[in-house]
Amino acid sequence: MKRAIIVAGLMTLGLTAAIAQSNIVEQRQDLMKQFGAQSRTIAGMLRGQAPFDLAQTQAALKTVSDAAKKLPPLFPESTKGAEKTDALPTVWESKAEFDKLFASLDAASQTALAKITDEASFKAEMPKVLQNCGTCHKTYRKS
């Protein structure tokens, strides 16, 4: 009887850990989707497909900055190899460098937020922010 209780407890613990791991992956994927939505809006403005909008730009930069701060802890070692993720093992093999990219993205977003006042400054500063996204995707994300 004691053995059955111990086994049941261990199984529950394992299930709880799997659910927690899944939740972490879902949280980071949600934040990445927010990045994507903001990037599409910004890219449209950069390409001239949508008019420059300072309020949208500021909102996008705030979203990116906020998410960049939240994301590093959402890549714990326990999620390495998790299903339904595009994160490459390189994330955990070079975790310090990976985390630095988020810090760089946050810093670039904050700088752009302070400097962008019109379309000219937008076109000068926004590529610096988006460069961080490309660097991360090339190194740490499945194609």
Structural class: mainly alpha
Individual helix count: 5
How helix-rich are the residues, as a percent range? over 70%
The total beta strand count reads 0
Distance between the termini: 50 Å
| Large-scale geometry | elongated
- CA gyration radius, whole angstroms: 19 Å
Mean pLDDT: 88
* Assigned CATH superfamily: Cytochrome c/b562
The profile of the biggest β sheet is: none
Number of domains: 1
Q: And the CATH topology?
A: Four Helix Bundle (Hemerythrin (Met), subunit A)
CATH class: Mainly Alpha
Strand content: under 5%
Report the order of strands and helices. HHHHH
The poorly predicted ranges are 12-21
Write the layout of secondary structure elements.
Layout (H helix, E strand, L loop, with lengths): L1 H45 L7 H17 L19 H4 L1 H21 L3 H22 L3
Characterise the protein shown here.
This protein is an all-alpha fold. It has one domain: Four Helix Bundle (Hemerythrin (Met), subunit A) (Up-down Bundle), CATH 1.20.120.10. The chain has 5 helices and no strands. It has helices spanning 2-46, 54-70, 90-93, 95-115, 119-140. The chain starts with a helix and ends with a helix. Mean pLDDT is 88; it is low at 12-21.
List keywords for this structure.
elongated; 143 residues; 76% helix; mainly alpha; Four Helix Bundle (Hemerythrin (Met), subunit A); 0% strand
Quick take:
This protein is mostly helical and 143 residues long.
